[in-house]
Automatic annotation (TrEMBL):
Belongs to the 5'-nucleotidase family. This is Twin-arginine translocation signal domain-containing protein. Its main location: other. Residues 68-312 form the Calcineurin-like phosphoesterase domain. It comes from Agromyces tardus. It holds the Pfam family Metallophos. The lineage of its organism: Bacteria, Bacillati, Actinomycetota, Actinomycetes, Micrococcales.
């Protein structure tokens, strides 16, 4: 076995320094990189607020040592405690704070309390997408063209992350953009289960091993395995199809944990971009989406799992491994830098080796500290450029519009999204055979807090309405397929007695269905009878006043997430695609509004659907 630098011979190569056996990559195990980082407030304060028991490591050279592993997940390009949609400091009803600058203050204090030599810092993915900051430096002023360092890479390097797993949203901007970001990261960027299509060869570094010095004893070797989400092949099909496949988390962990142990790891930590529910949001034969707890239960040799993806605060979950009977400690930090997971692993040195004897975890709320000024300074110029961008006017609205009731009423503001999508698709297919088909459009209420003010509408208003970096496609569906689609969407509502009081806010999100999975059609008329059981709710489906025929064809404007199978809606993933110009929907809305200069609901708002109960409209 020889050590060399390997550059994969793929159209979109990834890189790693690898020891290459016969058919799989086996990375080297570089030491922990150390950086001097500003220490903020008193260490005791933030840790006590989180219920941290205080310093527990024994004196160097003793037979027991406690190490601390800190973790974040789902940062989604939140660098500082700022809400770009409101153009103000972030605030919510729970008093949370966001951003890597807050995370840095927590990390500084824990390092001060625990000792820098006894700590490591990992992340579980979804880092470069999800806020206007991420969007701006991917699509408006791409770092791949300017040569600038990505703000999240700059901050993570300044904090001193030791390893970062890839989340599914890392693939949103394509593999070339992802390669560029990885090249800027000082930390190891990991995804063992993302393999080159048709092979078992990882397309990214699978794992790394970090060495922690202990006076008078051999170093503690901490292996970290990175796992991304199988849903990547659905949600970013256009970017990865034919290039990457994503194995199941359990399968990949079972393959790589023994390799990590054989490479000398005393501790094995998994950083997994997957929730712990054991369920999936998609259908079909893909491996389980939220498999973190299953990995702990089914794969022996793991001591701790940092997980994410679900955007929840899970301070500690203990799972017993079915083969060994040992407990594995799991923790998920709340998204956007609102929490930092902190694992406390105690190791004993016996018979010439280190082994974990106990493990615990908690999460630290970043609202207990202030932004680290050094981390704010790192991205100050980039943050200010985005603030200026999102405040750019695009049009004037003749009246105020709100998405507050968009989950149960046909609202003008959501109709505007459908109007833009319909116009874009209609223009694109002009002169083609598909131009003869009626164009309908699908949109969902992504953000109930979205508003267009009366008067000047800015980019931040549009970004607040359309918060995802989706692109626009058009597919062909039949009338029968649209009916099935709408029935599936209508499971979003609980079943409501016709005589029950009108309380629409209590009728939504049945079965924990999120708002973004309640799709509404424009271009056809229909009712949603919530007094009926799921599957029998769509009534009066019509086009231009006539009932829709089962075999009637429609050209459907739809976003790439839904068209690729996200949400498990019927028919759409297998429908013929006749338009896919990779147009970002948010940018299409901005361009459409800018060209018109005016946003007037009279031009586009049509109440084409409504909630009914036993045939009687609710509103």
């Amino acid at each position: 076995m020889t050590l060399h630098t390997h550059r994969d011979p793929e159209p979109t190569p990834r890189w790693c320094s690898c020891a290459v056996p016969d058919d799989e990559l086996e990375p080297t195990t570089p030491g922990v990189s150390r950086r001097n980082v500003l220490v903020g407030l008193s260490a005791a304060g933030v840790l006590a607020a989180a219920g941290w028991p205080g310093s527990a490591q024994a004196a160097p050279g003793d037979d027991s040592v406690t190490i601390t592993i800190m973790g974040t997940s789902d940062l989604h390009s939140n660098a500082v405690n700022w809400d770009y949609y409101k153009d103000a400091t972030f605030s919510d009803s729970a008093g949370n704070a966001v951003g890597l600058a807050r995370v840095s203050s927590v990390v500084n204090q824990i390092r001060a309390d625990r000792g820098r030599e006894h700590t490591l810092l990992f992340d579980a993915g979804d880092t470069i997408q999800g806020s206007p900051l991420g969007f701006y430096y991917a699509l408006v002023d791409p770092v791949t063209q300017s040569g600038a360092i990505h703000p999240m890479a700059a901050q993570m390097n300044a904090i001193g992350y030791d390893a970062v797993a890839l989340g599914n949203h890392e693939f949103n901007y394509g593999l070339d953009f992802l390669d560029y970001w990885i090249s800027q990261m000082d930390a190891d960027v990991l995804a063992a289960n993302a393999v080159h299509a048709g092979t078992k060869v990882p397309a990214f570094t699978p794992y790394t091993i970090k060495r922690m010095k202990v006076k008078g004893r051999p170093p503690i070797r901490v292996g970290v395995l990175g796992l991304t989400n199988p849903g990547v092949v659905i949600w970013d099909k256009a970017n990865v199809s034919g290039k990457l496949e994503v194995q199941g988390l359990v399968e990949a962990a079972a393959r790589w944990v023994p390799v990590i142990r054989a490479a000398g790891a005393d501790v094995v930590v998994v950083s997994a971009h997957a929730g712990d529910s054991g369920t999936s949001s998609y259908v079909g034969d893909l491996p389980i989406e939220n498999a973190a707890a299953l990995v702990a239960e089914q794969v022996p040799g793991i001591d701790a799992i940092l997980f994410g993806h679900a955007h929840k605060d899970v301070p500690q979950r203990l799972v017993t491994n079915a083969q060994t009977g040992r407990q594995v400690v799991l923790s998920e930090p709340k998204n956007w830098g609102q929490r930092v997971s902190v694992f406390d692993l105690t190791l004993e040195f016996a018979r010439g080796k280190w082994s974990v004897t106990t493990g615990s975890a908690l999460t630290v709320n970043t609202n207990t500290v202030v932004d680290d000024p050094a981390l704010v300074a790192v991205v100050k110029a980039q943050h200010e450029a985005v603030v200026a961008y999102v405040n750019t006017p695009v049009a004037v609205s003749t009246e105020a519009m709100s998405a507050a009731e968009a989950c149960w009423k046909d609202t003008a503001i959501l109709d505007y999204v459908n109007a833009v999508q319909t116009a874009t698709v209609a223009a694109a297919v002009a002169g083609t055979p598909e131009a003869a088909l009626p164009v309908v459009s699908i949109a969902a209420p992504f953000n109930r807090a979205a508003t267009f003010p009366a008067g000047q509408v800015t980019i931040k208003d549009v970004a607040g309405l359309y918060i995802y970096d989706n692109t626009l496609l058009a597919s062909i569906l039949t009338g029968a397929q649209i009916k099935d689609y709408l029935e599936y969407s209508a499971k979003y509502f609980v079943q409501v007695d016709p005589a029950a009081p009108v309380a629409p806010a209590t009728w939504t999100n049945a079965g924990n269905t999120p708002d973004y999975n309640y799709d509404q059609f424009s271009g056809v008329e229909y009712g949603v009878d919530i007094s009926q059981p799921v599957g029998s709710r769509i009534v009066g489906l019509a086009y231009n006043g006539a009932p829709v025929a089962s075999d009637q064809q429609f050209l459907v404007a739809v976003n790439n997430y839904r068209q690729s199978g996200g949400g498990g809606f019927p028919h759409i993933a297998g429908a013929p695609v006749v338009y896919n110009a990779q147009v970002a929907i948010r940018e299409a809305i901005v361009s459409y509004a800018s060209a018109a200069g005016t946003i007037d609901p009279a031009d586009f708002h049509v109440e084409n659907w409504r909630l009914v109960r036993n045939g009687t409209p609710v509103f």
